[in-house]
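step: validate -> pass
step: tokenize input -> pass
step: predict -> running
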Amino acid sequence: MAQAVMAACGIMSIMFTLILLAAVLMFLVSAFSFMVSMGREEAIAVAKRRFLYTVVGVALAVLARSVVVVISSSLGFADPVSC
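step: predict -> pass
step: emit ->
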């Protein structure tokens, strides 16, 4: 059982890293959209919405990871630092 939990922690760590890399990319894309909007309201709205969705996605990813770490550490399955 402990091996399965550790494997799940490894997979989750990889997924969390990929999500954060995608978030950095989306932050850059939204910043670029702001720069090239040239004052057009619809382009600015799209850039703001993209930025907001990226922030919400990162917040959800951090929340999901913290829930798994808290549950696994409270059950004694994994070291919270490694998961």
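step: describe -> The mean pLDDT is 87.
step: cleanup -> pass
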